[in-house]
Design brief:
Oligomer: heterodimer
CATH architecture of chain B: Orthogonal Bundle
Radius of gyration of chain A: 17 Å
Helix content of chain A: 25-40%
Strand content of chain B: under 5%
Distance between the termini of chain A: 36 Å
Structural class of chain A: alpha/beta
Mean pLDDT of chain A: 93
Shape of chain A: globular
Number of helices of chain B: 11
Radius of gyration of chain B: 18 Å
Strand content of chain A: 25-35%
Low-confidence stretches of chain A: none
Amino acid sequence: MTLLSFDAVDAFYGRAQVLRGVSLAIGKGERVGLLGRNGVGKTTVVNALQGIAQVGRGAVVMAGQPAPRIRHYSAARAGISVVPQGRRIIPALSVRENLLLGAAVARPGPWTLARVFELFPVLKERQHTPGTALSGGQQQMLAIGRALMANPDLLVLDEPSEGLAPVIVDELAEVFVRLADEGTSLLLIEQHISLIRRVVERYHIMSKGMIVDSGPLAQLTTEKLKQHVAV
Amino acid sequence: MIIHILNGFVYGGLLYLVAIGLVLIFGIRQVVNFAHGSLFMLGAYVGYAATAIAGFWAGVVAATLVLAILGLLLDRAVFRPLQDQDPIVTLLVTFGLLLVIEDLVRTVWGKDTLTIAMPDLLSGTLRIAGEDFPVYRLFVILVAAGMGAGLTLWLKRSRIGLYVRAFASDPLTTGTQGVDTERVSAAVVALGAGFAGLAGIIAGPLLALSPAMGGSILIESFIVVVVGGFGSFSGAFVAALVIGQLQNLGIVFIPSFSTMIPFLLMMLILLWRPLGLTGRAA
């Protein structure tokens, strides 16, 4: 089943158009990368499926169902959890409470508080501290744990390596591979090429609000990366 | 002295019940509700009407429920559309609402003051520290304390309380986690309006009911909210108790200055901590 598809989607912030005819699809068990330089519209893909950017022309399908009117909660309820750029940990809540908020959508599945603590033991140790008191890497773990608490079919990761030390990025890569191996589909939005190469099996490249290249990972050549991703 | 302190708790308790509604509505909708004092007043009148038909306890239930339902309607028709508007628009609309509710009450119940009789069960006095203290006033303290404790437990322990705290801190992220924030908001506004209605009916036997009775408690509730830190639940609790005590002790010991005390306190707190007692920079 297709978990998420964009069919020729235009997306806007107010009157400003950012996405132009974007089409992509992610099926069960797939690991897809979305690449491109800053400002090409990668995060707007995420924002469009969370009702933050408005979809104009085109169609978004979530969990096999067309989503004609997307609200902020639509993606989460369709089994699509997002680890947002900048993590967006809620300052007023403790680590534990941030995780429990992720379980607002009571979908059945293997992820519980205990299992998230098993995956990221540091979160258990610091469960009663405010979420924003954690280090950058720990906050990223918290954002991932919060997304997993919804037992998603598809995990969307928006620039998860941003601002993190290489050793932490390596740890996260292992976690993403493990999640994918356990059956969670992934849409990894990244500029960190080694992370993309370790995790995904096919890719889309964006430029100026459009998908300009797509294919299996083997076709992601250095030339394409130089042309569309490298600064 | 103990009697004076208890009287301070009575007024502080009523202030808390009104102010917490302001805090809840501001925290969720970012709307400063100038009509909140008139919800308190309307609660007293609805309670008066229900008391006349079925007794005081029916009045308590009716005032709380009717105002909570009115809160739901206000959230849908007024606060939700206002939440992204310029604050001056919010001020004008909620001020207009205040005038409409006052006029409505004046039309239905007239301009003359009305009174609500105390229930027989609570009409006696209790000997405390060698002096008589009305049982009804103890009841008001207990209701305010019980509501404060219940609200704190609800916010800290319940799932919806978690969503409310999350939403007050970051509405967008809370929504993207799958929470239907519009429903949470409606429930919270209903709760805030219900608290105002409850405060109105239980204040009824202590005050003369008039369409203008919401004005003074609104001003002092705003002082509570500002002193406590805008949007702070615990700050409102502390500030209501402090202002209740100072106001009451002022009436006893320096009556000519007592009405100034809350304003002086607000000025001092704002000079010392511009974000209020528990306010934190964003």
